[in-house]
């Protein structure tokens, strides 16, 4: 079984996702319970990087009803609003993280495992920067670096990401791609283009005038830099990146290791096999601590098999789900309130009092 096939098999087993095949083509990716959480975290981090933390104003938009659309026409109404909010002054940007799209040309369609990176139907992540003409080229180079940094930041192997040489098409449009290197070859995961004013070429002169904006006192047609990827590409990249095979007795076991910002669940609980009374007390304690963590916004998995399986088995289940931290309870926890916080990265435990567990985990999850 190929590596990618083993990854897809594990994704299905642990409710991440599975490809849905219709008419001999991968139509879309169907997400399970953990996959939905992973997608939610990926979208949140993309929005934080592309919208929330940007210096310029970035406005969100979506064309969820349109199957095929011209990007500049779909931006007409949002652009008018942006001009109003920005006092008609450049620069400002737009971000789309919800539009459902369909691949326009599936001549290379099929059901090979690698097609999971580009299913027929996908959710696009697209960013449009409307730049001051004199600054568009500088922003194009800057944006390449920023997007590459974003992918590398959440990767267990940052060196797998690279930028291609800048290419120029027949229309003089510059573009570059971010690619990820895997055992089976390279995957193109994002495209960045310096469109300049060519995005307006399909418009009538009257429509072009609607997009005129101000730089100081002069009116100019903005220069556009855009970048595009998809939720499906990002999901597949981080699933494949996080997949690891570790030595296990005389065999190997499969686990997922996600960045703590992307991990579907941030923490779970485990306890060794104990007598029924002690086990029940620890389960009640785990429920109490878990609810406190959830109320603080920490995604927590409270399992029913606490103290009903071996500790090693509980660790294995947690590692397969890519949970970064495990709060290990034991009999003495009921007396002194001390739990062991196990990290998936180091497999070491640090001791912490239950009263400080929520605030400490919050701090761990908050930091990149």
UniProtKB/TrEMBL annotation:
GO terms for biological process: mitochondrial DNA replication. Pfam families: HGTP_anticodon. Transmembrane segments: none annotated. Residues 279-361 form the Anticodon-binding domain. Signal peptide: none annotated. InterPro entries: aa-tRNA-synth_II/BPL/LPL, Anticodon-bd, Anticodon-bd_dom_sf, Gly-tRNA_synthase/POLG2. GO terms for cellular component: mitochondrion. This is Anticodon-binding domain-containing protein.
């Amino acid at each position: 079984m190929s590596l990618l096939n083993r990854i897809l098999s594990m994704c299905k087993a642990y409710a991440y996702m599975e490809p849905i095949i219709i008419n001999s083509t991968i139509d879309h990716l169907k997400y399970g319970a953990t996959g939905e959480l992973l997608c939610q975290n990926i979208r949140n981090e993309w929005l934080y990087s592309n919208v929330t933390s940007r210096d310029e104003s970035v406005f969100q938009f979506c064309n969820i009803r349109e199957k095929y659309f011209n990007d500049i026409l779909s931006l007409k109404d949002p652009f008018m609003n942006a001009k109003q909010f920005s006092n008609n002054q450049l620069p400002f940007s737009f971000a789309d993280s919800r539009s459902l799209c369909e691949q326009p040309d599936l001549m290379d369609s099929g059901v090979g495992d690698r097609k999971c990176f580009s299913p027929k139907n996908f959710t696009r992540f697209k960013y449009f920067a409307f730049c001051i003409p004199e600054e568009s080229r500088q922003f194009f180079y800057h944006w390449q670096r920023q997007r590459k940094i974003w992918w590398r930041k959440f990767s267990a192997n940052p060196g797998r990401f690279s930028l291609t040489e800048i290419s120029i098409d027949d229309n003089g449009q510059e573009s570059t791609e971010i690619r990820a290197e895997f055992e089976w070859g390279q995957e193109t995961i994002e495209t960045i283009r310096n469109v300049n004013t060519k995005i307006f070429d399909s418009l009538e002169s009257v429509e072009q005038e609607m997009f005129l904006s101000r730089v100081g006192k002069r009116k100019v047609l903005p220069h556009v830099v855009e970048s595009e990827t998809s939720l499906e590409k990002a999901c597949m990249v981080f699933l494949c990146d996080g997949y690891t095979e570790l030595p296990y007795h005389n065999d190997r076991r499969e686990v997922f290791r996600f960045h703590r910002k992307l991990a579907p669940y941030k923490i779970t609980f485990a306890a060794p096999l104990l007598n029924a009374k002690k086990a029940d007390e620890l389960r009640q304690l785990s429920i109490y601590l878990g609810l406190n963590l959830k109320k603080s916004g920490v995604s927590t998995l409270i399992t029913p098999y606490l103290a009903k399986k071996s500790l090693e088995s509980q660790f294995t289940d947690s590692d397969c789900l890519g949970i970064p931290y495990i709060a290990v309870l034991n009999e003495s926890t009921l007396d002194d309130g001390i739990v062991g916080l196990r990290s998936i990265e180091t497999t070491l435990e640090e001791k912490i009092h239950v009263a400080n567990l929520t605030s400490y985990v919050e701090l761990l999850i908050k930091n990149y």
